[in-house]
Amino acid sequence: MADTGPPKGEIKFMTPFKIADDPPTPKPIPDLIYPERTLAERAAARFSLAGKSAIVTGGAQGLGLVCARALLEHGVEKLAIFDVDETMGAKALEHFESTCKGEKPTVLFRKVDVANEASVNDAVTDVSASFNGIAILLCFAGITESKLAVEYNIDSWRHIFDVNVHGSFLVARAVARDVIARNLPSASIVFTASMSGYIVNQPQPHSAYAVSKASVHHLARSMAGEWVGHGIRVNSISPGIMNTRLSGGPSQQALRRLWLEKSPLGIGDPEDLTGAVVLLCSEAGRFITGTDVKIDGGYTIF
């Protein structure tokens, strides 16, 4: 499918968003948003994603799978997993089937190369038609490579950016175009950056990865500024050292010892990302846009 171009209708670019009315003077005791509900019901509503539809790229494994599962746990009813690995995609669907335990959300898998514009546009168009719009996008598709800068060839360098930066851009653009064309009231996009966008990794060299993740930080801010008039919030999260296949195993034992010396809270579990993700996608985060949330166990403090 060729590039469809911008959506039809008015594009509310940058600052021409609707200027909100001046709120009333606060009362000594603030009003309750849901006065008829119990404390527990109001707490649940704050972080509820009930009835929403979502796409998660890189959602067939690792951090993406855990955060996709969290969306279902908080009420997402329609979920599409985008990944290049069909085998892992099938396993992810089996996992969701077993963990939903009788509940019946719609969960789809699509083989998508996020760096391929046609693949992205076709998949987003197909899923949005099936779901009647998309309210949430999590971008977890990404790759890394540890290599000295003097040893990098330009094709390897470009491949990192094609997946981590250009892939995030292509999927977010496709979803935003769809939200604008459907005139949906709101949407939330969450990119996965990294603490590597703030620091220089050591002892492993990660120049391409680190620069790509710093780019993701600013991509989120730039898109947040452009799309605020359409009710599209764009944020990013920056994980630290997480306990995944990339950091586990005997081959990484020496590195893990060094990481533990630098990370006050140690090595994170993928589940540690889910709180921030749900916050950014729910009503609890409705006043947050253009922000990066560090989830690094204090690694970047020092």
UniProtKB/TrEMBL annotation:
Entry keyword annotation includes Oxidoreductase: yes
Signal peptide residue numbers: none
Protein's UniProt keywords contain Transferase: no
Pfam families: adh_short_C2
Keywords: NADP, Oxidoreductase
PROSITE patterns on file: ADH_SHORT
Highest taxon, organism lineage: Eukaryota
A single GO molecular function term of this UniProt record: oxidoreductase activity, acting on the CH-OH group of donors, NAD or NADP as acceptor
Recorded family membership: Belongs to the short-chain dehydrogenases/reductases (SDR) family.
PANTHER family per the UniProt record, alphabetical: BENZIL REDUCTASE (PTHR43008), DEHYDROGENASE ARBD, PUTATIVE-RELATED (PTHR43008:SF14)
Name of this protein: NAD(P)-binding protein
Native source organism of the sequence: Imshaugia aleurites
